[in-house]
Amino acid sequence: KNQVEQSPQSLIILEGKNCTLQCNYTVSPFSNLRWYKQDTGRGPVSLTIMTFSENTKSNGRYTATLDADTKQSSLHITASQLSDSASYICVVSAQGYSTLTFGKGTMLLVSP
Amino acid sequence: DGGITQSPKYLFRKEGQNVTLSCEQNLNHDAMYWYRQDPGQGLRLIYYSQIVNDFQKGDIAEGYSVSREKKESFPLTVTSAQKNPTAFYLCASSISGIMNTEAFFGQGTRLTVV
How far apart are CA A32 and CA B113, in angstroms? Predict the structure, then answer.
């Protein structure tokens, strides 16, 4: 069964600090991995999408890494801002299928 | 502006009533999806459509129905058969049904049964 596990479940950091969120998956055959940011009561917004051959991808202060061998990904947030407070969702797609497997998300709270 | 629009943002339903959630996109995407989001859970797929006049059940289709008469529209009906309909509903679209393409989400509809 395809699964995506995220850790930690929730995280509180001080404004200006860095943090790293983790994602482990068992989706096979792997097609791509995405990270989404979801503000409370809003729809998810894409941060990065990574294919098998990509190890690192950045989007401003967000940097995602992918290790396809160990089936792990991380999302690193640099110099956090209050607006980074949100749920971060790891999503994996399998080749040839029309559906995605979603993690439960990591709830990040950036405190002043 | 191009995008995907869900309406209404908030919806209240009495027990035993059917309600329809609207999802419209002007991105010219072939594929559209409905997800349900509950607290502490990942998004779960209700229905998806890869092309006009075709749709497939997702993981939790019971108590829901959809139609795809137009490329830009994919309404979801929550029927009285859905035992626990209170949730946050998200519509998404992508260029094609082969999910190596980006998926764009609407802003969601929060449905509450009163």
Answer: 37
Q: Cα(A103)–Cα(A75) distance, rounded to whole angstroms? A: 13
pLDDT > 70? residue A25: yes
Amino acid at A8: P
Q: Would you give the distance in Å from CA B82 to the centre of its chain?
A: 14
Instruction: Locate B16 and state its tokens.
Output: 């035993």
The count of other CB atoms within 10 Å of the CB of residue B16 is 8
φ, ψ dihedrals at B99, nearest 5°: -80, 45
Query: Would you call A93 an interface residue with chain B, using a CB distance cutoff of 8 Å?
Result: yes
DSSP states along B51-112: ETTEEEE-TT-TTEEE--SBTTB--EEE-TT-S---EEEEEEEESSSSTTS-EEE---EEEE
Residue stretches of chain B with pLDDT short of 70: 1-2, 97-100
pLDDT at residue A89, as a whole number: 97
For residue A28, give Cα distances in angstroms to A16, A21, A50, A69, B114: 37, 22, 15, 12, 41
For range A35-61, the mean pLDDT: 94
Length reported for chain A: 112
Residues of B in contact with A1 (CB under 8 A): none
The reply to whether B98 touches chain A by the CB within 8 Å rule is yes
**A60-105 per-position pLDDT tens digit:** 999 999 999 999 999 999 999 999 999 999 999 887 766 788 999 9
Helices first, then strands: H and E counts in chain B = 0, 11
Q: CB contact, 8 Å: B45 with chain A?
A: yes
